[in-house]
Amino acid sequence: MIIKVYSFDGLLVFGLLFICTCAYLKKVPRLNKWLLSEKKGVWGVFYKAAVIGTRLHVPVALSCLVMGVYVLFIK
């Protein structure tokens, strides 16, 4: 199954997966220093996504569950 990135729901799936991945990488010490050390510029997007994922972990998790049900059963 290929998810279209240019559709709105595909963009939401991509954003949620990006936020969840960056929040997970923040917990890995080597990757945290390498990938999430910059707070500005292009690499700052990874840091900002990790901060969103850790601070808003409950809404992000709930939206991942809702999006998973939508992709598997409704779409």
Q: What are its keywords?
A:
mainly alpha, 4 helices, 0% strand, elongated
Provide a descriptive summary of the structure in words.
With 75 residues, this protein is an all-alpha fold. It has four helices and no strands. The protein has helices spanning 8-25, 29-35, 44-55, 57-74. Helix 1 (8-25) crosses helix 3 and helix 1 packs across helix 4. 9% of the residues are buried.
Any chance you could write out the topology, listing elements then pairs?
Blueprint: H1 8-25, H2 29-35, H3 44-55, H4 57-74
Helix pairs in contact: 1-3, 1-4
Q: So what's the oligomer here?
A: single chain
Helix/strand structural class? mainly alpha
Query: Radius of gyration in whole Å, from Cα?
Result: 14 Å
Distance between termini?
11 Å
Number of helices: 4
Uncertain runs: none
Query: In percent terms, what proportion of residues is strand?
Result: under 5%
The largest sheet is: none
Mean residue pLDDT: 85
Specify the helix fraction band. over 70%
Shape: elongated
How many distinct beta strands? 0
Order of helices and strands: HHHH
